[in-house]
Design a protein that fits this description.
The protein has helices at about 20-30, 65-70, 125, 130-135, 155-160, 170, 175-185, 195-200, 200-210, 235-250, 345-350, 360-374, and strands spanning about 5-15, 50-55, 80-85, 95-105, 110-120, 145-150, 165, 190-195, 225-230, 250-255, 265-270, 275-280, 295-300, 305-315, 320-325, 330-335. By secondary structure, it is an alpha/beta fold. It folds into 2 domains: about 5-195, no CATH class; about 200-350 and about 365-374, 2-Layer Sandwich (Dihydrodipicolinate Reductase, domain 2). An 8-stranded mixed sheet has the order 1-4-5-3-2-6-7-8, with helices on both faces. An 8-stranded mixed sheet has the order 10-11-12-9-13-14-15-16, covered by helices on one side. About 40% of the residues are buried.
Length: about 375
C-alpha cells in the first residue's frame, strides 16, 4: 500500500478496449504530482525500464502477487500488465483497471513509478491474448512474463512475445517438473527462463561450494555417498540434487517415493560408487521465494576418510555451515548471515538480470528425471 508521501491514482472501465486503457493511464500520469518540499509540483516523468506481464489462469492464482507488485514501485519502475480470466468478464471487450503508484526518491523532486493494468477477460477474449496485451506494451522495452498456475505451452502467444519467463517450480509442484523441462527445451534460444525456486537456492549452493572450496576438501566432492535434504517444499531439494548430479556426473539408478510431499529416497551411481539421497519435506510458511532449506547434510569419503558437511537453519532463522576435520584442515562451524529474500527482492533481481542461469537447465533436467522415476 502507498505510504503517506506516496502517490496513487486509479481508473476502472468495463467493456473497454486496449486503446481506452492506454488513454486512461496517460491521463493518470498527467495528474501525478510528487509530494515534496522542493520545487512546485510537476508531472512525474514516465521512466520505465521493463514490461512485466503477469498471467493468472484463475483469479485465485494471483494470491499476493498484486500486493508484491505495489512494493516493486520502490525499486523498479515498470509497467505491469496483469491478465486473468473471470466469469464476470463482459462477452465483448474486457474489464480493466489502471493504477499508477509513485514513490518519491529521497532528496529529489522525482519519483519511481509503477504502472499497473489489471485485465479481466472473457473466455472468448482469452483466446486472443496477444492482440489484447500487445497494444499496451511499451515499445523498445524488454517483455518479462510471470506465469502463475500451471506450465504454459511453448507456443502460447504471451510466451512467444516475451523474451523472459518467470515461473516457480515450488508452486507448480514436483509432477510438473517434466513439463517444465520440456518447455525450457522448446523455447531455448529465444526465451530466458528464471525459476523463483532455483533463485532462492542460490545462497545454499554458494555455501556448499564454499565448504568444498579448499584444495584439501575438493577431492571429497567426488566421494559423496549420502545426502539428507530437509526442506519445506518438494521441488527445491530435487533441484539441489539435480544441480549436484549434473555437476558431478551422477546417474539416477532408482527412486523410492510416495506422494509429492512425502519423503523420497533416490539412488545414484557416481565415479566413486553408489550415492543415496534422502529428501524430507516438513511443514513451512509457504511464502514464495523464502529460503526453504531446513537442513542439508552430506557425507563424503576420500582416501578412507569420511567427512561430513552440513548447512542447518537455526532457531533464529539464520543458518550455520559446518565441516568436520579434514587432514590438514581443522573443523569448521560458523554462522552464515543470509538476508531472507522477499518475493519483491527476488523479482527485482530477476527483472534487473533476466539472463538464464547456466546451471539451471542441467539441474532441472535431473530433477525432472527424478520426478519421472517417482
Amino acid at each position: 500500500m502507498p505510504g503517506s508521501n506516496d502517490f496513487a491514482r486509479s481508473w476502472q472501465g468495463r467493456g473497454v478496449d486496449a486503446i481506452e486503457v492506454e488513454h486512461a493511464l496517460a491521463n493518470l500520469t498527467r495528474q501525478a504530482r510528487p509530494k515534496t518540499d522542493q520545487a512546485p509540483p510537476h508531472p512525474i516523468p514516465r521512466a520505465r525500464v521493463t514490461n512485466l506481464v503477469v498471467r493468472a489462469n484463475q483469479v485465485g492464482d494471483l494470491g499476493s502477487a498484486l500486493d508484491e507488485l505495489s512494493h516493486l514501485a520502490h525499486c523498479h519502475p515498470l509497467r505491469a500488465i496483469v491478465v486473468r480470466g473471470g466469469t464476470g468478464a463482459p462477452p465483448i471487450g474486457l474489464d480493466a483497471s489502471a493504477t499508477i503508484e509513485c514513490v518519491p526518491k529521497s532528496g529529489t523532486p522525482s519519483a519511481v513509478c509503477l504502472e499497473r493494468i489489471l485485465l479481466t477477460l472473457s473466455d472468448a477474449a482469452s483466446a486472443h491474448l496477444s492482440s489484447v496485451v500487445a497494444p499496451l506494451l511499451i515499445p523498445d522495452l524488454p517483455v518479462v512474463l510471470w506465469w502463475l498456475g500451471g506450465v504454459p505451452c511453448p507456443d502460447d502467444s504471451l510466451v512467444v512475445m516475451s523474451g523472459n519467463l518467470i515461473v516457480d517450480s515450488d508452486a507448480l509442484g514436483v509432477p510438473a517438473l517434466p513439463r517444465l523441462e520440456r518447455l525450457v527445451g522448446a523455447i531455448a534460444g529465444r526465451v530466458n527462463v528464471r525459476d523463483l525456486a532455483w533463485t532462492a537456492l542460490e545462497p545454499i549452493r554458494d555455501i556448499l561450494a564454499e565448504l568444498f572450496d579448499p584444495p584439501e576438501a575438493r577431492p571429497y566432492q567426488f566421494g559423496i555417498d549420502s545426502l539428507h535434504l530437509t526442506f519445506t517444499a518438494a521441488a527445491q531439494p530435487r533441484l539441489l540434487l539435480g544441480w549436484l548430479a549434473s555437476r558431478l556426473g551422477w546417474e539416477v539408478a532408482r527412486s523410492e517415493v510416495g506422494t509429492e510431499d512425502s519423503a523420497g529416497r533416490f539412488h545414484f551411481t557416481s565415479v566413486s560408487g553408489p550415492v543415496e539421497a534422502l529428501v524430507t519435506v516438513t511443514a513451512g510458511s509457504g511464502t514464495t521465494a523464502e529460503y526453504r532449506a531446513v537442513r542439508v547434510e552430506i557425507t563424503a569419503r576420500h582416501s578412507g576418510q569420511a567427512i561430513s558437511f552440513a548447512i542447518a537453519r537455526q532457531p533464529d532463522g539464520n543458518y550455520r555451515a559446518s565441516r568436520s576435520a579434514i587432514p590438514g584442515l581443522p573443523p569448521v562451524s560458523h554462522p552464515v548471515a543470509l538476508t531472507r529474500p522477499s518475493l519483491v527482492a527476488v523479482l527485482s533481481d530477476l527483472l534487473a538480470y533476466p539472463k538464464e542461469d547456466e546451471g539451471y537447465r542441467g539441474a532441472l533436467s535431473q530433477a525432472a528425471h527424478l520426478a519421472k522415476a517417482s
